[in-house]
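Regression test case RT-17, inverse folding.

Input:
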């Protein structure tokens, strides 16, 4: 029996396969997490860019109504240029900032429930399915 124990302790065949079987699931979850969060951060960045650019486009308006229409028109014209976003899932709220009368606020809300990352929700902690970003610009002339 002692002779068999010495033989088994010196035999290292199959060790790599056992290590791979132990490490691979953790590695796979980390890679899928990086992929899922990369897609989500891309959608968040695109939403923030749309809000910022839409707020900048609203500066040309002379009234709040005109600023709102310029902001919404910008989003309709440019939302399709972001391949990660579905333009039909974008909601825009543009109006004068309630607390600051000399500021105009644009809020863009995106329903991210159609992103492919939600297939990984069973084993990855994922953020909210609604992405909301806001941009505010000062109105000139005061």
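Golden output:
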């Amino acid at each position: 029996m002692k002779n068999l124990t010495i033989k088994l302790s010196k035999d290292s065949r199959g060790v790599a396969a056992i290590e791979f079987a132990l490490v691979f699931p953790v590695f796979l979850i980390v890679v899928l997490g990086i992929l899922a969060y990369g897609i989500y951060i891309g959608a968040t960045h695109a939403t923030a860019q749309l809000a910022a650019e839409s707020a900048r486009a609203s500066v040309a308006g002379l009234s709040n109504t005109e600023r709102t229409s310029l902001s919404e028109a910008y989003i309709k014209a440019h939302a399709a240029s972001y391949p990660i976003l579905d333009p039909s899932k974008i909601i825009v709220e543009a109006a004068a900032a309630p607390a600051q009368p000399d500021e105009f606020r644009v809020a863009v809300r995106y329903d991210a429930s159609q992103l492919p990352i939600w297939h990984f929700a069973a084993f990855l902690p994922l953020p909210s399915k609604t992405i909301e970003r806001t941009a505010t610009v000062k109105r000139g002339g005061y």
